[in-house]
Design brief:
A hairpin with a 5-residue loop joins strand 1 and strand 2. This protein has 742 residues and is an alpha+beta fold. The longest helix has 36 residues. The strands form five sheets. It has a seven-stranded mixed sheet with strand order 15-27-26-25-16-23-24, sandwiched between helices. It starts with a strand and ends with a helix. The protein is built from 28 helices and 27 strands.
Length: 742
């Protein structure tokens, strides 16, 4: 059981539930948990065999929840029992199925013999001896679960199977006992035995498929090392990962996984981050770079300072998000819940009507019973309960493997309806940091000389524009002169002394305040202003006043993936917009570089006003997706139908994951279209699954009631309905992002 504080008013408690078999079981478990005092909300998931309960804090609440589950006829277990269990053989649990086959197949020999004109009817004693162990030993699980369902005044798959097969077995015994001693009556032992065997086979195949749907979570859990190499006074000491503290120094050897989040203190290496970000290429790491727990170290030995451990790590947050998405219910599941609540009683009524209809129309009693049994067997609602969660588990799991974290089932279901995608500009469509795009000096002046002076003055500044100037000088390998008497003028710029001369560097408004003239730079100044660039100047103080010696322009660069991503969204018929706090000229200049038109740009937007623009778009009846960096765009992300946050390299990953319904673990904008694609494909699988789950019953029940099917055929159809739903969902595991398919 997992307990999570979600606020003072409520707790979130996760627990595993063993023994559920169909959608009706889910409904019964939810009703039992909702009756516990203090429970606010319950979501039970058949595919994960788990429950997520929101409760008001109280004494022994966990024990009460476990007791409610047990009283409902199920077994409460640890929340991640299915995931944390040792990896089993693909044939695990097949023993009862194999025994059922061995006992049931001989009962089918007469049926096979009839095809070839042979009469291989076994004696009633032998049929009884083969069928009875299947009915009451292998089928004991159905009786137990069905009995608990009756006690809870509800129904489930087990009740239908146990009633149907018992009726077939009792009918065979009755026909056998009433027949003359020397007669060979037609018995139906093979129907009850084969149905139970087929149901067991279907449940085994279903369990095998479930293990595959949890493979993404298992893979994420496997990324966490059990031991870390702690660097202490006595050198390296191996300690359990649970004993590592923030601030510790750890040694990570070549080929090992980083145990926790931290910063590289010594050494350099290449890190494979593919399992977390989906990025296949290794990333270079050196002193001061951030590393994430679970990523794979390359061929370098590094020492790491621990920054986050346990539930505070990025990997733990990712696992929590994927688990939340897989445990949640999609809105479409409400329809299934409503149907399953009345499904079993309706089926029992239909079976009774079938029996009465055949019997009262003059048919033999045993024939009426067999047709009623067929209705009971084919109508089991296993597939209904698995249709939605199986697809959600497969879809969110494969998305996580490619760096797309889907926070909940609702985001997954809504994303495919997108009509408008709105991008934030800075940090989303652009790389997010300033670059010196233009360095303009007067004719005849040495550009490198003045760039060296500007960089020297700004070397100690943390301002983004100052760092851009220093970076430009470093790229050109310009030697920086010594500087003294540096003074920062807040909101305006810097001043300093270089080689006995006083210089100032700052915005144009400050230059004009000091009386500096820009007459020598009128033409380039006008061109840069029309382009929307951010401008600054370097000026020298002289006896005759302040003289501007260089004009500089700064701009952000669009991401390489921006234009292709926008084109891909347009190709899907989706309208694309850009929100920016820049002035109109700057915003439109960037828009043109990424393939957007003037009409698709909303400029001069304050961070607090972005949400209002999203709300206005939604008010027009459009389904809106907002894509931002997850930090200053949080209100807009929350206002959209679905927010997509770009996890950034600056440490905002955790903020991003909590700000939106979908988080992209790397800055590749192609993942936006990929997220919409996996949403579309997952919802398509849900609809396909629900169609097949319903069609089995809509078509199967009338056929069974009309006598077209026999119990064996019904059992096979019922078992295969669950298997087909799981298999269809597992096809999603083959999905790859569109960019990866090229």
């Amino acid at each position: 059981m997992t307990t999570l504080n979600t606020g003072e008013a409520s707790l979130r408690i996760d627990l595993g539930i063993h023994g559920m078999t169909c959608a009706s079981c889910v409904a019964r478990a939810e009703r039992a948990l909702k009756k516990v005092p203090g429970v606010q909300d319950v979501a039970v998931n058949l595919a994960t065999e788990s429950a997520r309960v929101m409760v008001a804090p109280s004494e022994q609440i966990e024990a009460r929840l476990k007791r409610a589950v047990r009283d409902a006829g199920y077994e409460p277990v640890a929340a991640n029992a299915a995931i944390d269990a040792p990896t089993e053989s693909s044939w695990a649990g097949f023993g009862p199925v194999a025994l059922g086959m061995a006992l049931s197949l001989p009962l089918l020999l007469p049926m096979l013999g009839n095809v070839f004109g042979q009469h291989w009817m076994m004696s009633p004693w032998l049929q009884f001896a083969l069928a009875t162990p299947v009915q009451f030993v292998l089928g004991a699980r159905f009786y137990k679960a069905g009995w608990h369902a009756l006690l809870a005044r509800s129904g489930n798959m087990d009740l239908l199977v146990s009633i149907g097969t018992t009726a077939g077995w009792l009918l065979s015994v009755w026909l056998w006992l009433k027949s003359p001693a020397d007669a060979m009556p037609h018995l139906y032992f093979e129907a009850s035995a084969v149905v139970i065997t087929l149901v067991l086979l279907g449940k085994w195949l279903e369990a095998r498929a479930k293990r595959q749907t949890t493979s993404a979570i298992r893979a994420l859990h496997a990324l966490r090392p059990e031991v870390a190499h702690l660097l202490g006074l006595d050198g390296e000491v191996d300690v359990p990962i649970d004993e590592v503290l923030a601030g510790d120094e750890l040694v990570v050897r070549p080929g090992e996984r980083f145990a926790v989040d931290g910063l590289v203190l010594e050494g350099q290496t290449q890190v494979d981050e593919s399992m977390l970000t989906g990025e296949p290429l290794p990333v270079a790491k050196t002193s001061g770079d951030r590393v994430t727990g679970g990523t794979l170290n390359g061929d370098g030995r590094v020492i790491v300072t621990v920054k986050a451990v346990g539930v505070d790590t990025v990997l733990a947050s990712i696992i929590r998000l994927v688990e939340d998405a897989q445990a949640g219910k999609a809105p479409i599941q409400r329809l299934v819940d409503q149907v399953s609540a009345v499904f079993v009683p309706v089926v029992l009524l239909l079976a009774l009507l079938t029996f009465l209809g055949w019997w009262f129309t003059g048919h033999a009693f045993e024939l009426a019973v067999i047709h009623a049994v067929t209705v009971l067997v084919i109508a089991c609602p296993c597939a209904l309960g698995l249709a939605t969660p199986a697809a959600i588990m497969a879809g969110t799991g494969v998305a996580a493997q490619h760096g797309i974290l889907i926070k909940d089932a609702q985001a997954l279901e809504l994303a495919h309806k997108a009509q408008v995608v709105v991008f934030d500009k800075t940090g989303t469509l652009t790389v997010g940091h300033a670059r010196l795009t233009d360095w303009v000096v007067a004719p005849g002046e040495d550009a490198a000389h003045w760039l060296g002076i500007a960089a020297a003055i700004q070397t100690g500044s943390s301002h983004p524009l100052a760092r851009a100037v220093v970076a430009a000088a470093q790229e050109k390998n310009i030697a920086l002169p010594s500087v003294s008497q540096i003074v920062t003028v807040p909101g305006k710029g810097l001043q300093g002394t270089v080689e006995g001369c006083d210089y100032v560097i700052g915005n144009l408004l400050w230059m004009r305040e000091m009386g500096a003239t820009l007459a020598d730079f009128e033409a380039p100044l006008l061109a840069l202003q029309n382009r929307g660039a951010t401008l600054a100047a370097l000026a020298q103080r002289t006896p005759s006043g302040v003289k501007v010696v260089a004009l500089m322009a700064f701009g952000d660069e669009p991401k390489a993936s921006a234009a292709p991503a926008i084109a891909a969204l347009r190709a899907q018929g989706i309208r694309v917009l850009m929100l920016s706090g820049d002035n109109q000229a700057a915003a439109q200049a960037m828009a043109q570089r990424v393939g957007l038109t003037v009409a698709e740009v909303i400029s001069d937007v304050l961070p607090g006003d972005k949400a209002a623009h999203i709300t206005a778009l939604k008010a027009k009846g459009q389904s809106v997706i907002m894509v931002g960096d997850g930090v200053n765009d949080a209100p807009a992300l929350a206002a959209a139908d679905v927010g997509i946050a770009m996890a950034n390299a600056g440490g905002g990953t955790d903020v991003a994951m909590h700000a939106a319904g979908i988080t992209l673990m790397r800055g590749d904008l192609a993942l936006v279209a990929a997220a919409l694609d996996i949403s579309h494909r997952t919802v398509a699988k849900i609809r396909q699954n629900l169609f097949w789950a319903f069609i089995y019953n809509v078509a199967g029940i009338p056929l069974a009631a009309l006598g077209v099917l026999n119990p064996v055929m019904a059992g096979a159809a019922m078992a295969m309905s669950s298997v087909s739903v799981m298999s269809n969902a597992l096809l999603l595991k083959r999905w790859k992002p569109l960019a990866a398919k090229k």
